Predict the 3D structure of the following.
Amino acid sequence: MRFNITQRPDASMLDVVFEQAGEKLIAEAGAMVGRDSALEMTTAIRGGLGAALKRKMLGGESLFQNTFTASAAGERLQIAPPTEGDVMHIKMTPEMGAIFIQSSGYLASTEGIELDTKWGGAKGFFSGAGLFLVKASGQGDLFINSFGAIHEIPVGQPGTMGQGGYVVDTGHILAFSEGATYNVERVGGLKSFLTSGEGLVARFGGQGKVWLNTRNASALASFLWAFRPRKSN
């Protein structure tokens, strides 16, 4: 299949052209924008009920997923995430290991990608990232989405900005590869923690990649809270 990501980075959409009959793309329920009428769509619980419930309850993903199957070459499909933001393609191979994605960051994948959930440790609770992450592994094409644009940081690789490790605000972590390790810590001392506007950060080490989302949904909600309608006494 061929694909193109359009309207980046504010309102990204994945435009797919299937090159032969039988090609498939699995996507989150509700992600479809449009498709050729001959393109077949089936909705199912992928990986069995137990695995799907685990992804839904622990990883925040949809219980059902849609599989789009081409009946002929040239058929077209457009999908997009529910929120304003970016979409990125990751070409996965068994050698690169798994990628761990924050809840709601998974958009679509080809048949060779397996999805599971992974315990992120108690530090995930304090980071605001959640206790569980979506684990993607295998061989094929993976598409992730973010609130805001997506920025990739190579960690532990000479000549890159993250060669000595990298510190990320926990609200901006979208995904990271298996070789990247992290610890959640407070910014500076207590005074900095209370007055800097920053809270908890993740200090990444090891060797791998980290994908950041440039906007933070929680920060936006806090900003809008001050403008909410109020009743006067």
